[in-house]
Amino acid sequence: MLIDFSMDKKKNCPPMTIRGSTIKPTKMHKFLGVLVDEALCWHKHVNYAIGKGTAYMTQLRRLSNSTTGLPLKMMCQLYTVVTLPKMLYAIDIWCLPMYIGNDDTHQRGSIQVTKRLNSIQRIALLSITGALKLIASDTLEAHAKLMPLPQCIQNLCHRAALCIAATPPIHPLHPKFKCASKCFVLHHRSSLHHLARTFRLTPDNIEMIHPACKPPEEVTPINIRIPTSKEKSI
After folding, report:
1. Domain positions in the chain
2. How far is the C-alpha of 52 from the C-alpha of 114, rounded, in Å?
3. Distance set, CA 98 to CA 110, 111, 120, 190 (Å)
4. Per-residue three-class SS string for the chain
5. CA 49 centroid distance within chain
6. Closest CA to 119 of 102, 140, 99, 101
7. Can you give the pLDDT of all 234 residues of the chain as single tens digits?
């Protein structure tokens, strides 16, 4: 796999030959479930995540029959446990949470991406509640007891930023996040820059969490026991 990261779309990337093996360049590669493109603009992964969420919602709508389908509570659990984690996987990398700065009243962040993701949640809300299409989304979210998607994205990004900020200095992301929190560069900003600026986080103000290293042969002192079906019925 060979990717030449560049913003110039007309740039010619010749193939590379290593020990007689020719490696042809590619414009996109899937790494740990995230589609990485040559410009690092994440447009490919946004379309991939929206398509994946739409596919899961299509299957979920088949189970939402008012007479023979699943109960509404079960539909809400399926959407929360299955569809949302699949659609919002690694969202702190490819989507910026919406926020309002101190010096203006305009929303900032990935507004268009959030609107496209919110349209999928609206389909889920209509399937869960069985309501009419003319009802507002905030009313459906209140009846379905679901968090609005912009707040859900903000919570996920905030949680990821806190986890990175709490890493010890030996972690490879610790110095990168510390540098990003001190200087918001003008060009080639990464996800760490946006997370640090959005939530005003610095590793110096966050309690450091040291990993607990245990040998693999250590036996846990906690005994785990699963009761049988007869014991559960009693």
Report:
1. 1-40, 42-205
2. 15
3. 6, 7, 18, 16
4. CECCCCCCCCCCCCCEEECCEEECECCEEEECCEEEECCCCCHHHHHHHHHHHHHHHHHHHCCCCCCCCCCHHHHHHHHHHHHHHHHCCCHHHHCCCCEECCCCCCEECCHHHHHHHHHHHHHHHHHHHCCCCCCCHHHHHHHHCCCCHHHHHHHHHHHHHHHHHCCCCCCCHHHHHHHHHHCCCCCCCCHHHHHHHHHCCCHHHCCCCCCCCCCCCCCCCCCCCCCCHHHHHC
5. 9
6. 140
7. 667 676 666 777 777 777 777 777 777 788 888 888 877 788 888 899 999 989 888 888 887 766 677 777 788 888 888 888 989 998 988 888 877 666 556 677 778 888 888 898 898 888 888 778 888 888 888 888 888 888 898 899 999 988 888 888 888 888 888 888 888 888 778 888 888 888 888 888 888 877 777 777 777 777 878 888 776 565
